[in-house]
Amino acid sequence: MGVRGGGAVGLLVVFGVVSLAAVGLGAWVCAASGVPTGSWLRNLIAWGVGAVLAAGLAFAGGRPLSLGVALFAAPIGLAASFLNPDQEGVHRWIDAGPLHVNVAMLLLPAAVVALAGLARDRLWPWAVVLGAAALLFMQPDASQALALAVAAGLVAVMTVRPLGARLTILALLAAMAAVAWFRPDPLESVPEVEGLVGLAFKASPIAGAGVLALLAAVTAAPPLTVRVNDATLRAASWGLGACFLVWAVAPWLGAFPVPFAGIGMSPIVGAWLGVGLLAGMVRSHRPGRIG
């Protein structure tokens, strides 16, 4: 396998190891805290499903069509959440049979990667992203609005050349993220979802420190393993890492899910989709262009 393929495999392996460790430690914390087996077992199943999907994207993704699908899926999915019954006025989920899907956490990682692959010398992808940001404000979901603003803002800094366009995009993203924090969010914290870090420290200080360390490792995995000297791939990997970073920090700012370790399949599968699409971009890389 050549350098490009090796880079993609390295990304999948490194992310797979650290994310599985985070999911596994979270499952142990939940089991030790009396959370029903069916709840934390679904996280492990989601990790396996996500890994298979990511492997498929690594071989089939990275082309303009797959990037476009990933980008447009975010606002379409977010809009579809309004067709689902709300929870105390909040629209963040779509019910698919027994699954309760957090749309933003499922679709945003791949959308950020796709944005980096499509945004160079194009403005229309930014209109799609700003539409997604507006829908996150309407849901409301301040944590995901912030994640999208930080990740997409970093992509803008790294890819958008005209200073005026870059500043305009950054201002609009920042404004939408800021106003999202002023929307009332009545949902209460659930210990095994939003309060998992506290549960981990209660179970064992070592487990608590381990959860924090593994969340940091998951965040660092994309930018530190994608070493191809290409501006687009750097923007995609750093944007994806920024999305994961905000996910990890958000539970400290409000009642937002702890990714990977907390109960919730959507961020696990969603992160894998973003990593798989990024791996596909690495495999299809040609110097100076993506797609």
What's a quick, concise take on this entry?
By secondary structure, this protein is mainly α.
Question: How does this model look, in words?
Answer:
- By secondary structure, this protein is an all-alpha fold.
- The protein has one domain (3-283).
- It is built from eleven helices and two strands.
- Strands 1-2 form a two-stranded antiparallel sheet.
- The two termini are 20 Å apart.
- The relative contact order is 0.21.
Integer-rounded radius of gyration:
18 Å
Helix content: over 70%
- Low-confidence stretches are 287-291
Order of helices and strands: HHHEEHHHHHHHH
Kindly report how far apart the N and C termini lie.
20 Å
Structural descriptors:
two-stranded antiparallel ribbon; disordered C terminus; 70% helix; 291 residues; mainly alpha; single chain; 11 helices
Give the helix/strand layout:
Blueprint: H1 3-32, H2 37-60, H3 64-80, E1 93-96, E2 99-102, H4 103-118, H5 124-138, H6 142-159, H7 163-180, H8 196-203, H9 205-225, H10 231-249, H11 265-283
Antiparallel strand pairs: 1-2
Helix pairs in contact: 1-2, 1-8, 1-9, 1-11, 2-11, 3-4, 3-5, 4-5, 4-6, 4-10, 4-11, 5-6, 5-7, 6-7, 6-10, 8-9, 9-10, 10-11
